[in-house]
Design brief:
The structure holds 2 protein chains of 2 kinds. Chain A is α+β, with helices and mostly antiparallel strands. Chain A has 3 helices and 10 strands. Helix content of chain A is 25%, strand content 33%. In chain A, strands 2-1-10-5-6 form a 5-stranded mixed β-sheet. In chain A, strands 3, 4, 7, 8 and 9 form a 5-stranded antiparallel β-sheet that branches. By secondary structure, chain B is mainly α. The chains are: A alpha+beta, B mainly alpha.
Chain lengths: 169, 356
């Protein structure tokens, strides 16, 4: 009996190890966005984390020249969560900070930090995850920056994978 | 088989020549100024621990052309990166020390100072790190870690040269990589007819002018605008954007490309967008060298783009391709030929220093 128990315990341990390994691998594979750089709490986010965050709707004109409804997370909310110097702290030398957004394909665009802060800017720049109620398509999603009112959508960077806050040096 | 004999004899002669490497006395010293057009910009980083010096570039160039870095002492960096071909080798896949082919096509070494993610899959973020990868790869130069350094330590000119560059005559793989990186940073191509045109010193022919329009314009059938939209990825003064894309070579990619580095499904079959500098000299084309000439490349973008979920969005918008006419292809090719920089491929400062 003891032997059988020991054997069962062995199987149990092995399966626990396998489950741990699998969850470890999948959770690693699920990282969809990082927020790093000049922040107090760098973020490594999974799709579920982003889905759970408050969403804002904006309207913007894409390359097709048509107005679309985009929903997503305010960039400033992500920056707040990461502890970037927004709101009351966006003064003095912090006004020389910028945000570099990078895409999976290597494309990069830049925003000055005040462009994203509602105390400065009247438009809401979002990390969109849906357009007209549907998830963003391949080559565009899963996440795309939408800058309402910007005449040329070149900073509407597709396939966003990381957001870095940096100091201009 | 009969072709091997002269190659073998040639290799012996080459090895013999390089064994008598002559070193300038004195070796030039001091900072090495890097000259480039303002339009190239200064978005590059030179590591603080490996500044570009004349002595470092001098050593790096000797090493670049040094077959004794390879396990069999027959292959140098220059074997697969030949100056006359803008530092490529004219082969679909290169041949390493053991006679096996490499996995991918030899890349042109041009304007690497600005490249932030090196190799077809962008695996390497510095020239220092990059230079050691072919050195150690079994299907390239095949040297075991420390093997080449150990060998050079016993040769006449090298320990003294390393001392001059690094302050110590101990030769290490890291220092070999640093010296090679210094030389590679100097491989700047900015003197093609296209550069002369941008500077206002060359007038385009009518065909080149039409080719340039096709190169720069995105097609818009509604407005009756023809275009190949090449500049979207290959634009700018340096003729590339630092991007990784799947350009529709296959429905199902046979080489996972950047995916193997990032682990992202979206990266499957994505590869570096290469520079078009000297493109007429760097055939065959694509990461696997599948196209023998520029006609075949244009044929691909014109008629044969394969759809897949990973296909670059700019290409996905064009069913099967841009459908260029024969005369449009001719115009595009005459424009692409403007990117050939004969100063670069004949610059004596980049040539084999062992053959003086």
């Amino acid at each position: 009996m003891r032997n059988i128990n020991a054997q069962l315990a062995g199987y149990w341990q092995a399966s626990v190890v396998i489950v741990f390994l699998l969850t470890g691998l999948t959770s690693q594979a699920q990282t969809v966005l990082t927020v790093s750089g000049e922040v107090t709490k760098p973020l490594t986010l999974q799709a579920a984390d982003l889905t759970a965050m408050a969403h804002t709707q904006v309207t913007g004109k894409d390359r097709d020249g048509k107005e679309h409804q985009y929903a997503g997370i305010l960039l400033v909310d992500l920056l707040k969560q990461a502890g970037a110097t927004v709101g009351g702290e966006l003064r003095g030398e912090n006004l020389t900070k910028y945000v570099l957004v990078k895409s999976i394909d290597g494309y990069e665009v830049l925003f000055a930090l005040p462009e994203l802060d509602p105390d400065f800017a009247s438009r809401s720049i979002i990390l969109a995850d849906s357009v007209d109620g549907a998830p963003l398509g391949s080559g565009v999603g899963p996440y795309r920056i939408v800058v309402p009112g910007e005449k040329k959508p070149a900073r509407w960077i597709r396939e966003v994978k990381s957001i870095e806050v940096r100091f201009a040096k | 088989m009969r072709y091997w004999k002269p190659i073998f004899v040639g290799a012996i002669v080459m090895a013999g020549l390089s064994a008598w490497t002559m070193v300038d006395d004195p070796v030039p010293t001091g900072p090495y100024p890097l000259h480039y057009p303002a339009s190239f910009g200064s978005r590059f980083t030179i590591p603080a621990d490996n500044p570009t010096t004349q002595e470092g570039v001098y050593l790096g160039r000797l090493l670049f052309y040094e077959p004794r870095l390879s396990a069999t002492q027959t292959i140098s960096c220059a074997s697969c990166h030949q100056q006359a071909r803008a530092f490529t080798d004219g082969l679909a896949l290169s041949i390493g020390v053991h006679g096996k082919t490499t996995r991918r096509n030899s890349m042109s070494l041009t304007n690497l100072l600005w490249v932030r993610q090196l190799f077809w899959d962008g695996r390497s973020s510095s020239l220092e790190e990059q230079a050691l990868i072919p050195l150690g790869h079994t299907d390239e130069m095949g040297s075991k870690p420390g093997e080449a350094a150990h060998f050079l330590q016993k040769t006449k000119p090298y320990p003294a040269l390393f001392k001059q560059v690094f302050g110590s005559d101990t030769i290490t793989d890291v220092r070999i990589g640093q010296a090679l990186a210094q030389f590679e940073r100097t491989l700047i191509s900015a003197d093609s007819r296209y550069d002369h045109f941008l500077a206002g010193h060359y007038q385009l022919t009518e065909s080149e002018q039409r080719g340039m329009q096709l190169f720069n314009q995105s097609p818009s059938p509604d407005r009756n605008v023809r275009g190949g939209n090449c500049a979207h990825c290959h634009g700018g003064a340096k003729l590339y954007q630092e991007l990784f894309h799947n350009n529709g070579l296959d429905k199902q990619a046979t080489d996972s490309g950047r995916q193997a580095i990032t682990g992202l499904a979206l990266d499957q079959g994505r590869f570096r967008v290469p520079t078009l500098r000297n493109i007429a000299l760097t055939a065959p084309y694509m990461h696997d060298g599948r196209f023998n000439n520029l006609d075949q490349v244009l044929e691909h973008y014109s008629e044969h783009i394969q759809p897949s979920p990973m296909l670059a969005p700019e290409l996905a918008g064009q069913p099967n391709g841009f459908h260029l006419t024969r005369s449009e292809k001719t115009d595009l090719i005459s424009f692409l030929q403007l990117f050939t920089d004969s100063t670069f491929v004949h610059n004596p400062q980049f040539a084999n220093p062992h053959l003086k």
